[in-house]
Structures are given as C-alpha cells and as structure tokens.
UniProtKB/TrEMBL annotation:
Keywords: Signal. Residues 1-24 form the signal peptide. It comes from the Bacteria. It comes from Crenothrix polyspora. This is Cytochrome c domain-containing protein.
Length: 298
C-alpha cells in the first residue's frame, strides 16, 4: 500500500473515533478524495493534524470531504449577520411556549438555516421547533422563531443556548456570528388563579439607591378590561435574591394597555441582589441586575 495513502487512512480512522492513533483503513481514502499525507497531516511523515481536520471528522465522511474539497465561495459573498436577542429568557413548564425571534441580515439576501447548540448543558431543546422564514414587520428583515415547550424534567434549570445562521445553496456556505442567550425553566405554576398567561421582566438596573424594573404581562384571552383591572388589584409582585432571600416588600403593579409595567424600588447598596427573581400570580421571571454594586447579594 502506498505510504501516503496509509497515512491518510490512519488519520481518518483515528479521527472517526476521536483518537490519536489507529490502524489504517484504506477504504476511507477514496470516498474523501485524499491525495496525500499533507492533505490532512502537518508533515509528509504523518505527524500532527492540520487545523480544523479533527472538527471536520466529527461530521463523518461528508465533513472530511468538505474540509478537503471546500465548496468555492462566490465572489462578493458576505457573511449573514444574526441580530442580538435578549440575554435571558424565562419559560414555565405547562405554560405558554418560549418563542425567541431570530432576525438575520444578509447583503445578498441568501436563504439560510438556523443552527442551535447547547455547549455546556447537553441538549435541553429536544422538541424545539424552528419556524418557516417570515418577514419582520418593523425591520423588514427575515425572521425565524425558535419555539420550545420544556417538560417537567427541565424545571429549575438554566440553559445556555448558541444560535448561528448559515447560508444554504450552491456556493453559499458562510456562517454568521454566534448569538448566545440563557433560558431559565420554571416549574409548573401552583396557583389556581390564572388571569395572567405570561409574566416577563425585561430589565433590572440599580441606580441612585433604587432598583428600577421594567417588564410586561400577557393576560389570559377573553378577559374584559374590568376583569383585568380587578385582577391587577389583587396581585402583588414578590422579589427574592438568587438564593431565595426576600427583597423588600410585596408590590402592586400598574400595567398599561399594552401590558407593560415599570417599578422603581428604594434599595440600599448593601441589599442589592446580583440576580433578582420575581414572582407574579404564580409565574416567575429572573434577571441579572445591571450596575449592581461591586459586592452584591447572592
């Protein structure tokens, strides 16, 4: 057997199993179109691997073929840009599914696919759905929705999720920037009163001895204005630190016609939490506190 082919075959068998040494398997040479040692190795003696080859091998033979014979990128093609999303999202088991809108900007108006990865938490997004491409009414950019309904097995856990957009089509393969967010899954709500379908906190910031909070609520469908107002009068916002300590006293919220609310709570520097957890009609939400003191309450 040709020495060069032996070296390449050894590489393929070793990377397939994520090892550094293995017996040679010549049947891997022809499918990948490898022509010599230095296609994949750093030297003609077969020492070391070229950057990227081990990652390519994780995609099996197709991944190695693409590494060895990359599809040419069309002249003038630019990477798609995935726009930022909120840093943190909350979802409740048994409640409304989480929906994260993902907007993509691409100078050539290429079609694209959304990749979802959870690098530090395994794969919590089993059952998640990526919608068909739509058009965002405000920006007129393409948008797809990441939709996920967690189960009881996901409750009381926080997951890190990475999103990327990748071009599709002949000569189009560029990958966008990575957008990272976290998702906290709360257990099924226990309260029987369910005037509110969803409760959100958009921002928490400490400034001038005040904790300033903004968020929104979504009412259960079918409620009249009178029923909404009556519900709000009997509801209080409860605040805790990440470890469960109570922050301040229960607060009543004023919600405008669109469901948005704001609250400014007097709070000394020594009592400011690093992360604030909020509970409203049995629904939970959390947020890191922006501009918190250097030493904050865990």
């Amino acid at each position: 057997m040709n020495t060069k082919k032996l070296s390449v075959a050894a590489l393929l068998s070793s990377t397939m199993g994520f090892m550094t040494t293995a017996l040679a398997f010549p049947e891997y040479v022809a499918p990948t179109g490898a022509s010599g040692c230095t296609d994949c190795h750093l030297t003609v003696e077969g020492e070391g691997f070229k950057p990227g080859i081990l990652d390519a091998a994780k995609g099996g033979l197709p991944g190695l073929k693409e590494f060895l014979h990359p599809t040419p990128v069309k002249v003038g093609d630019t990477k798609p840009v995935l726009l930022p999303v909120n840093e943190h999202w909350d979802v409740t088991v048994g409640g409304l599914p989480l929906v994260i809108p993902l907007l993509v900007s691409d100078a050539e108006y290429d079609i694209f696919a959304i990749n979802v990865a959870t690098p530090t938490n395994g794969l919590p997004v089993k059952g998640a759905v990526i919608s068909q491409e739509l058009s965002d009414a405000q920006s007129n950019l393409p948008v797809v929705n990441f939709k996920w309904q967690p189960t009881a097995a996901h409750a009381n856990k926080t997951y890190t999720v990475n999103f990327t957009a990748q071009e599709k089509g002949a000569g189009r393969k560029l990958l966008s920037n990575t957008v990272t967010t976290t998702i906290t899954v709360w257990p099924k709500r226990q309260k029987q009163v369910t005037n509110i379908s969803q409760f959100k906190v958009q921002r928490a910031q400490w400034d001038n001895n005040h904790l300033n909070l903004t968020g929104s609520v979504i009412f259960k469908s079918g409620l009249t204005t009178a029923q909404r107002n009556a519900a709000l009068k009997s509801l209080d916002l409860n605040m805790r630190t990440n470890s469960g300590a109570i922050v301040g006293s229960a607060l009543n919220l004023t919600v405008d016609a669109s469901g948005s609310w704001k609250k400014s709570v007097p709070l000394k520097a020594s009592n400011v939490p690093c992360i604030i957890k909020l509970e409203y009609e049995g629904l939970n939400a959390s947020s890191s506190v922006k501009l918190h003191p250097k030493v904050c309450v865990q």
